[in-house]
Write a structure and sequence with these properties.
By secondary structure, this protein is mostly helical. The chain has one domain (13-62). It is 47% helix and 9% strand. It contains two helices and two strands; from the N terminus they run H-H-E-E. It has helices at 13-25, 29-46; strands at 53-55, 60-62. Strand 1 and strand 2 (60-62) form a beta hairpin. The two termini are 29 Å apart. The model has no long low-confidence stretch (mean pLDDT 85).
Length: 66
């Protein structure tokens, strides 16, 4: 899947954003799609096996059970 990177809190957020943007822009289109699919699978897994978006009649409605 991916890797978790922990950042030092003394690093400015703008520098972290630039670093992550450069890493994303360096990916091929295929790698970007694969990372998106991995993120969707992870979100479903963390939501107890249920997708975050479900058909609700007309279009998609995002909801969270409480």
């Amino acid at each position: 899947m991916g890797k978790l990177k922990l950042y030092d809190t003394s690093i400015p957020q703008a520098q972290i954003v630039r670093e992550r943007e450069q890493a994303y822009l360096a990916l091929s289109s295929k790698e970007k799609i694969l990372q998106l699919m991995a993120l969707i699978r992870l979100s479903v897994l963390l939501n107890g096996g249920r997708p975050l978006k479900q058909p609700q009649g007309k279009g998609l409605v995002i909801f969270r059970k409480k």
